[in-house]
Amino acid sequence: MHTEADEALVRRALQVARGALETGDVPVGAVVFGADGTELSAACNAREALGDPTAHAEVLALRAAASVVGHWRLDGATLAVTVEPCTMCAGAIGLAKVSRVVFGAWEPKTGAVGSLWDVLRDRRVLHRPQVIGGVLAEDCAALLGDFFADRRAH
C-alpha cells in the first residue's frame, strides 16, 4: 500500500522523466531521496543522448546520489522511478543498498521488481529493500504510451 508521500515522490520522477523527450530517449525518470527526504539526485533515461546502453534513469540517479553523499552506499535512501526497474537497474539498486524503491508503471516485458522477475525481493540476495509498486501507475504508463504511439506514428 502506498501513501500520499509516495505519490509525491513519483510525481517528482514524472517531472524528471519528461526531460528524456528532448533527446528522443524513453521517458523514464528516477529520483533518489536521502533518509531525511532531501532530494539527492534526479535523472532521466539518456541512452540516446549519451550513446550508452547503461544510461538508464535509475543508474544515472544512483551514480549522482553516491557522488553527493561521497560513497557508494545509499543506506536509508529511497529511489522513486516512473517504471518498474529492469534487471540491470534492480541489481544496481541492491548493490547501492537503497532502503526503499517506489515506482509507478509495472513493466511486464522487462520488469525485475515483481513482474517478470523479482530480483530485489528474492530471498537469496543479501540486500532486500522495501518495494512499493503501482504508484500513479496510470500517469506513468500514459507518458510511456504516448511516447511509443508517437514513435510508431513517425
Can you walk me through this structure?
The protein has helices spanning 4-17, 47-50, 57-69, 87-95, 137-153, and strands spanning 29-33, 39-44, 78-83, 100-105, 130-132. With 154 residues, the chain is of the alpha/beta class. The mean pLDDT is 96.
Shape: globular
Based on helices, strands and strand pairing, what is the structural class?
alpha/beta
Average pLDDT taken over every residue: 96
Major sheet: arrangement of strands:
2-1-3-4-5
H/E series, N to C?
A: HEEHHEHEEH
Low-confidence stretches: none
What is the alpha-carbon Rg in Å? 14 Å
Number of contiguous helices: 5
Sketch the major β-sheet: 5 strands, mixed
Percent helix, as a range, is 25-40%
Oligomer class: single chain
Strand tally is 5
Could you tell me the strand content as a percent range?
A: 15-25%
End-to-end distance, in Å?
A: 39 Å
Salient structural properties:
154 residues; alpha/beta; 17% strand
Question: Any chance you could write out the topology, listing elements then pairs?
Answer:
Elements: H1 4-17, E1 29-33, E2 39-44, H2 47-50, H3 57-69, E3 78-83, H4 87-95, E4 100-105, E5 130-132, H5 137-153
Parallel strand pairs: 3-4, 4-5
Antiparallel strand pairs: 1-2, 1-3
